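Review box. Two proteins, two foldings.
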Amino acid sequence: MPDAPTEVERIGIEQVPPESRHGSPRRTFTLWFAANLTIADYVIGVLTTVFFGFSLWEALPILVIGNALGGVLLGLSAGMGPSLGFPQMLSSRASFGRVGNYLPGALNWVSTVGWFTVNTILAVVALQVMLPGANFVLAAAAYVVIQSVIAIYGHDFIHLFEKVMSVVLGLLFLLIFVLAVPKLPQAFAYQPSAGGASLGMVGLLLVVSFSYLMSWSPYASDYSRYLPERVSRRKVILFAGAGGAISSFAIEFVGALVGSLTAPQTVSLGYFGGLNSFAGQFGWLAMLTLILGAFAADALNLYTNSLSALVLDVKVGRWITVAAGGVVGFAVAVLVNSNFESFFENFLLALTYWIMPWLGIVLVDYYLRGRTTASSVQGARAFDMAGLGVYALSFLVSVPFMVPLIALPNPPVGALAYLSGGVDISFFVSFGVAALLTYLVRKK
């Protein structure tokens, strides 16, 4: 029988047995919808109009494309869960080998800690706007403790929590949008002092909006593996991808909208100070919305982080890996919060670099070559040299197309990135090369 949502989850990274399978594909929609009604999406939206220099008209199609592409990859990743019954990162043992899979497993552990850190910082900053004088360290510590409890309770409790948050956050962000409706003509007439619609900035916004939603892909099966094995895979793909893409785009649009109306205040008061000023008497409610959004995202970040640690064959209970991830995330948040904007931008792009070749291999192995099955995951040899070789080669081939964010506005440009006008297309290159090579070297 499945665990009740109020019981601590008993299953770790082992395959979910038939008697514990439950739910319908629709539950993946509410989970990914709530997980992307977040503070980070809002910040991406504000960056779009205030700091990247786009008008709303210029930003809208780029945000639509970025989120649509990210939603496709999220949905395809979630579609693997029901038939395999394993967490996402464990499933890629079929592509890289049990020990070879330590590399993407460790990278995902770092990524999930990074996102946990990002949301911890944003939540505490929002709290400090709502309650001036709140101590960053104490507030961050309380936040991490609460998130750790949610993650320890595990899968079913997280689904219940996200279902509630999908309604609560949906209504709260709708309120922020309603406050902006009377000023929509002003917002759409906004023209930033530094135009953002250069090819390089278009590429940057596409990478940032795409990489945020796409970066959930290594989590996806963690939250679909309990579905019955014979559930419609097409529906899982559709519900998970649509849930993430719709909410991510909507909140980025709200952030861009508020940013276009509050650019001077945002520059002087920060991301949340601008929103607080805009919301007026509802400022406290706007800050509460952002804080709850961070909780919705970090419930997944810390839970998946604990599973990624176990994929490395760490022989401890899941509650210990939850606690370890929380402690590391807290420590990093305290260290980097004073230089957050630079950390956030660089972190987003770094995610894209490692995930995309991994995704190209994993998706082709599962969907096109049929190599990834429950038995191939369980019986994986120590190293799959073909998978590891394709991963390394795909990454190396993409390096000349990279445009690291670290030195903006004059970043070091990969030798071949000049061909695309300085736009970072390395994520398309690494994914495409990895998918093609995997298809060619694998036998069906």
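Next protein.
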Amino acid sequence: MDAEFAALTQGLAASEPVGSKALAEESDPDQGDDGHEEARPAGRGQPDRADDLWDQPDQAGGSQAPRAVKVAVVVTPVASAQALAALCAVSDLECIVVPSTSGALAVRQLVSAHEEWDISELVGGADTEPAEAAELAASLSRVSRAGVVLMTADLATDVGIESGLSGTVTARRYVEAEAGEEASAGLLLASMDQVVEDVLLGVTPPQDVPGAVRSTEVRPSRAMRWLGRGLRRPPRS
């Protein structure tokens, strides 16, 4: 199953990305004189609650207290982060869109519902992904017949005898809004762009990746322009 899943994922990344040719053929009014896109980093005006968890000190002792974070990364076949951000914006899907060579990523940082981290969640994992992550993956899985891959990480700092960051990572494929079976997250990460692992494990905050866009900050006029170009079929040669 893991080998089959990896083959499907590699095929998803290798197949013609949604809107890649159309986006390449038309210049963007927001581009600079050199033809390169002037990247608009994901704004920090309204940071996600999860963004502050790693830096929040313990009010009693002044040191970092154990915190639980759930990170969800949806790997899509969409070549352009702008096109995916536009799609998420018009669909009212809140996420940070990150560009990668494996396809644009839709990232959600979710705070654990537990006020105190339960180590059993780390040891035993979870039967299902967080509802918000599953809904995001199900919605985006309709973009392509190949579907998307949802990767989730349940992470915590300084839990029990463990020092530093620890947790579990899972992977699941979604096609036509239906969840498939789990697969080896390690096998998939090994075949993907390094940015996927860095964002999933919290090495790099998604908003700090060059070219990242918050779907909530995409203006309607720009969303329609990005989406229109992203869905346009390239002319026949």
